[in-house]
Description:
Elements: E1 2-10, H1 15-29, E2 31-36, E3 40-42, E4 53-62, H2 66-79, E5 105-111, E6 116-118, E7 121-123, H3 132-141
Antiparallel strand pairs: 1-4, 1-5, 2-4, 3-4, 6-7
Helix pairs in contact: 1-2
Amino acid sequence: MHRVYLGLGSNLGDREEHIRKAVALIGEKVGLVIRQSSLIETEPWGFESENRFLNGVILVETSLTPRQLLRSTQKIERSLGRKRKSTDSSLQSPDFSKYSDRPIDIDILLYDDLTIDEPDLKIPHPLMEQRDFVMIPLNEIKPR
């Protein structure tokens, strides 16, 4: 089994409910949710919006490969109403034009000790250390 940290965020609709549903679907389709951080409210990062985010991090044990995990989390996002722009590859690049309001966002932060650098899959998440809304909840549940 692999240990994976996933970042969760929502700034549209019932944000807590979107995150709760995402965690439940991750538990059904990805693996056992071991830990969940508290949720923090934050300003949007990389774009302007009147809608504040709720963000958190979960630790999951999974048998999925990184590529399977990416496909599964994107499918969960779509099932919860996430619509991606054609320029949005789901990734973790500093192209701020791709950021927008969304009911749910699921980012792969860490996958065991793997490092992957592919066009549409980068692990560890390359921008996570720049984002307090990731690092605060991650540090809450990740052993040092």
